[in-house]
Amino acid sequence: MKFKMQEKQNQLIERISDKHLVVGVDIAQQTHVARAVNYRGIVVGDPLPFENDDDGFARLLDWIKQLKNTKGLDTEIVGMEPTGHYWLNLSGWLYEQNIDVVTVNPHLVKKNKENRDNTQSKSDKKDALVIADMVKNGYYSFIRPTGEAFEKLRVLMSNRDTVVKRFVSAANQINRWVDIIFPEFRQVFKDVKGKGALATLRLFPTPKELRSMEAIDIVNEWRTVMKRQPGIKKAQALIQLAKNSVGNDKAHDAYKLHLKQLLEEFDLATTQLEIIEKEVSEALESITFTDKLLGIKGLTEITLGGILAETGDLSHFAHGNSLLRHAGLHLVEASSGKWKGQIVLSKRGRSRLRRFLYLGTMCLVMNNPEFKEIHAYNVKVKKMKKMKSIMKLVGKFARMIVGIARRNEPYCAEKVHPLTPLAA
Q1: Domains of the chain by range and CATH?
Q2: What angle do CA 144, 145, 151 make, to 5 degrees?
Q3: N or C terminus of the chain: which is more exposed, having fewer CB within 10 Å?
Q4: Cβ neighbours of residue 157 under 8 Å, at least 6 residues apart?
Q5: Which of 143, 142, 112 is nearest to 127 (CA)?
Q6: Dihedrals φ, ψ of 193, to 5°?
Q7: Could you tell me the pTM of the whole model?
């Protein structure tokens, strides 16, 4: 069955009946603003500024009930922009009150701001009214409540991104430090992040220490921190290179302190990453379809954790194409008459989800026999560019994981439609 976005759009419009009070909320850090319209877009009541606390939320609820009673309306729907993290508390509180809560795309809010008064003016009251109009017209998405495991994954993977940035920053600065103080160091240790290289930087960080040492003394120091240490030849090479080093020999103590702090930051980030990855693995174990998805050869726990952190329960998606729209990976074009524009990815969606879908597909192309075969067929037989083939496989990957999650069935290689083997 093909997924048609127009059918979904029609359903969203049809959900708004003549008995609905449509509320738009402009989100802020401290004071939100609410406006209300009926299903035709006629403004109902006065604007309501309310605080971002329990009393303010109660005022909003009383205001909604009063407008419903005054206008003879039966139900309500509240729309808001997912602005930063400020909207989370309000949306959760309204959901607990059994009120339909939806979100609108901030980009569309900006595009629609002139619909009401044909001016470029912007204010909290106007934005709230624009949001209410967008909900009335069906330009909204329902908030999917996430379970404990998915919420845990969302927090862990967000935290992991922050720690990875610190890890990469520390590693890059250590490399810079080596380039300045002891550039010949890489002739012995190609990877500065390796165990032997890091141990050497901790024990004798600058060429000044190495020049006065014997090779056997260096090996003995290595043995105190490593079970398998570099040999006597590397120690001799280090001493010889240190004696002829062209590195900076000034501000010796300052550079040593700098390196010590960089190594501490690197070690902290490494430890934190290990803890996070362990927690991610435990969170995945509590999700029913995780073992089925991890049965796909080439899909790792971190990649799957990153996808589920952004999507929540994959079984709630109607089709893999809706997952692609959620990520901003659906195709868009600009055409008029005889002129046809280039078809591109919309990129209107979750950037982190796009990243993990792409990385997951790349892992499958490298490690999964079926995906590897399809990619080779696309490139060699159908003469596709490699990136175009990868993006087609991203769509296939999205549809595959949604199907597995919805049916809770194991991965079946035959259903990936392996192609006829390529001619040698």
Answers
A1: 5-142 (3.30.420.40), 151-280 (1.10.287.4070), 290-416 (no CATH)
A2: 115
A3: C
A4: 280, 305, 306, 309, 310, 352
A5: 112
A6: -85, 0
A7: 0.84
Long-range contacts of 408-411 (CB under 8 A, 24+ apart): 408/288, 408/289, 408/292, 408/315, 409/292, 410/292, 410/295, 411/292, 411/293, 411/295, 411/296
Mean residue pLDDT across the chain: 90
pLDDT at 115: 81
Apex CA 399: angle with CA 396 and CA 402, to 5°?
A: 145
3-state secondary structure of 145: coil
C-alpha–C-alpha distance, residues 26 and 128, integer Å: 5
Longest dimension (CA), the chain: 92
Which residues, 6+ apart, have CB-to-CB distance to 349 below 8 Å?
325, 326, 327, 328, 329
Element (H, E) at 255: helix 252-285
Task: Give the DSSP H or E segment for 48.
Answer: strand 43-51
Only one residue has tokens 């083939």, namely 389
d(CA 412, CA 292): 10
The owner of tokens 């990453």 is 273
Residues in the chain: 424
CB distance 387 to 345 below 8 Å? no
H or E element in which residue 61 lies: helix 54-71
Other C-beta atoms within 10 Å of 206: how many?
21
Query: Coil, helix or strand for 226?
Result: coil
Q: Which 3 state secondary structure label does DSSP give 32?
A: strand
Residue 103 is inside which H or E element, if any?
Answer: strand 100-103
Q: Dihedral sign, CA of 79, 80, 82, 88? A: negative
Quote the DSSP letter at residue 316: G
Radius of gyration in angstroms for the set of CA atoms belonging to the chain, rounded to a whole number:
29
| Token couple for 393 | 């496989």
Quote the CA–CA distance of 298 and 369 in Å, as a whole number: 9
List the beta bridge partners of residue 23: 36, 78
Distance (Å, whole) CA 151 – CA 149? 5
Q: Dig out the tokens for 200 from the structure.
A: 């050497």
Using DSSP bridges, classify how beta strands 100-103 and 75-80 pair: parallel, antiparallel or unpaired. Answer: parallel
